[in-house]
Each structure stands twice: as C-alpha cells, then as structure tokens.
Amino acid sequence: MFQPPTNLFTQREWDAIFLSLHKYTSKQIGRILNISYRTVENYTAQIYRKVGVSSAQQLEEYCRLNNFDLYVPERFLQPESRIFI
Questions:
Q1: Please, which contacts does 52-56 make with residues 24 or more away whose CB atoms are closer than 8 Å?
Q2: Kind and range of the H or E run holding 32
Q3: Position 5 in a domain
Q4: Cross-referenced SMART domains, in alphabetical order (predicted)?
Q5: Which domain holds residue 28?
Q6: Can you tell me the distance from the alpha carbon of 14 to that of 71, in angstroms, rounded to the nearest whole number?
Q7: Does residue 23 belong to any structural domain of this protein?
Q8: pTM summary value
Q9: In CATH, what number is assigned to the domain containing residue 28?
Q10: pLDDT for 17-68, tens place per residue?
Q11: Which residue in 8, 33, 47, 60 is a FRET match for 24, CA 20 to 30 A apart?
C-alpha cells in the first residue's frame, strides 16, 4: 500500500514528484522537504533524465500513463505532514 510503484526513483525523488504533480514550485517543495530549491531542481533534472522527459508537463503525462500520479508517499499521510503551506 505504501510502496512506491517502481524502484526507478529514490524516496526523495518520489516526494518531489508527488509535490510537483500537485503544482508546487521548486521553492515550495524545498520548504516542505527542508532542502534548498537548488537541490529540488537537481532532483527534477535527475527525474527527467531517468524517464526521458524535458518538462513538467511531460513528467505529468508520463506519471499519469504509468499511474504514478496515484501514489502518495507515506510521509504525506502523517498528521504532522506540512504539505499545505
């Protein structure tokens, strides 16, 4: 139930994907994950390379086609989750 749909991405990358699919900016994602927005941008570049896309729209389509958009990382199901800023 809480397992990622594939091992293609690290847990941090899954966190970034989840937030990106919910239209959070790199700066917002960085604040939520307590990392710099530059680190988020590095994660995003790694994710794009792994799946062969070059934009957020293409990533969203890729995730939708593979049902990755249905995955919610466990950290965001916790009551103390700071997803809503």
A1: 56/20
A2: helix 26-33
A3: no
A4: HTH_LUXR (SM00421)
A5: 11-77
A6: 9
A7: yes
A8: 0.89
A9: 1.10.10.10
A10: 999 999 999 999 999 999 999 999 999 999 999 999 999 999 999 999 999 9
A11: 8
